[in-house]
Amino acid sequence: MSTAPQASIDPQGLGRCLAALRPTLLRLAQLQLRNHAWAEDAVSETVLAVLQGAQRFNRTSQLKTWIVGILKHKVLDQLRQHMREPTAPAAADDDENELEHLLFKQDGHFRELPDEWTDPCAELQREQFFSVLEACLEYLPNKQGRVFLMREWLQLDSSAICRELGIAPTNLWVMLHRARLRLRECLQIRWFTPHAR
Amino acid sequence: MKIPNTCRDVTHLLLAREDRALPVYQRLAIRVHILTCRACQRFERQTLMLRGALRVWREHQDHDDPKPPR
Ligand SMILES: [Zn+2]
Asked: For residue B47, which residues of chain A lie inside 8 Å, CB to CB?
């Protein structure tokens, strides 16, 4: 195979880029994996793959896009490795119905009219919103947080998540539902309630 | 099968819709309820806004895009 002399990335530039991206990679891996050692491993695997594959990097795409794409694969490998062990059946319904009791009356109707939200991303404080959003994601219980980010960050569909984690769809749907309800509540309190900021 | 008709049922479906395709009778139940329920109209707008916000967050994390889209 003739490898046409491509304009490969200069190693120093790549090194600088990796160093600069490292905090972002670690933050994303930690958010998804919720385990520091696994996150470190995923990032190390990513750096290794980036260094080994630097010649294959297609200059037309952004370097960050390419690196984060690799990170997503490495993070998924970690989830496969660590999450497949048969774990105790979904932690007995703690106080999960509490959120619903806060929102709804006995007859199933809303206690209060939900707020009219304004688009948080259209605002100038988008970066601040992201940090509140991430704090609310961290605040989710581990299992809920993991499946939620598999959906929303790794962008896997429900059947893929079930396959990767070896769980039943109904089990997954319950976790995702709770995660969404909690996230909504957390953002309502920490971002959308006017005195929150 | 129980027909969803309370706000609790409908919000359940509105959240489920983010993760899976709903059967037609459930989609219809949402629309019929929301026609007259202001609370669920608001809740639906919140879920759509959250969907958009998560997408913008994801794109910001995954790509070099320090500026808001468009
Ligand atoms: Zn309603």
From this structure: 180, 184
Query: Any idea which residue has 């385990």 for tokens?
Result: A35
Global pTM value: 0.88
CA B44–ligand 1 middle distance (angstroms): 10
Distance B23 CA to ligand 1 centre (A): 19
Domain membership of residue B36 (yes or no) is yes
Which among B12, B36, B53 has a CA at the least distance from the CA of A152? B53
pLDDT of residue B32: 95
- Is the separation of the CB atoms in A176 and A182 below 8 Å? no
Give mean pLDDT, residues A24-32: 97
Pull the structure tokens for residue A130: 């992201």
Q: pLDDT > 70: what percent of chain A?
A: 86
Tell me if domain A1-88 and domain A89-197 are identical in fold: no
Domain A1-88, classified CATH 2.60.40, yes or no: no
- Amino acid (1-letter code) at residue A92: A
Domain ranges of chain A: 1-88, 89-197
